[in-house]
Amino acid sequence: MRGEHVDAPYIQECPLVLECRVIHVFELGLRTQFVGQILDVKAEESVLGSDGAPDMAKIRPILFSPGDRRYYGVGPSLGLAFAVGKEI
Known about the structure:
two-stranded antiparallel ribbon; two-stranded antiparallel sheet; 5% helix; mainly beta
């Protein structure tokens, strides 16, 4: 499939698709960091939480680690951003 807002393909069977535009590129030694702006979100209802937002536990994303050439899954929530440290 082709994106509606950017000239990029995506896999139709993916339950969540983010169409992004690159707005900054930073060279960090041997690495390059890309910063993007999300232009559109396509999500199947099966991966949305009760609040209508994407639910990471339902999406179950896969991460690729180039260093050891392995795929990893995302684990359970570790805490609420900007609040978890207040308990220490």
